[in-house]
Specification:
Number of strands: 3
């Protein structure tokens, strides 16, 4: 039983260390390209729309007022910007 606990602790430490290394590598790649400006390959501009709920339970989307968002092409969010893979999934932002 003690061997199992020791193995679980080591496995957890390896997983945490791997996540830290992936995040650090992701951040370094984006940080290197950040100095090239917002048109750098690490950044992308996406269009999204605003939606508001109506009293009857439906949602009204304002397609005549598109908004833009700069996202980062990375696995994790960096520099206050959402990753593009996540931002593409939420093209309509709901407001109350």
């Amino acid at each position: 039983m003690l061997r199992l606990v020791a193995f679980a602790k080591r496995a957890l430490a390896v997983v945490v260390l791997a996540l830290i290394l992936v995040y650090a590598g992701d951040w370094l790649r984006v940080a290197r390209q950040e100095h090239a400006g917002p048109d750098a390959p690490a950044f992308e501009t996406l269009t999204f729309w605003i939606a508001t709920p109506l009293k009857n339970g439906k949602v009204e989307v304002f397609y005549d007022q598109p908004q833009t968002e700069v996202c980062v092409r990375a696995v994790f969010p960096h520099f206050g910007r959402r990753p593009c893979w996540y931002a593409r999934r939420q093209r309509i932002h709901r407001v109350s």
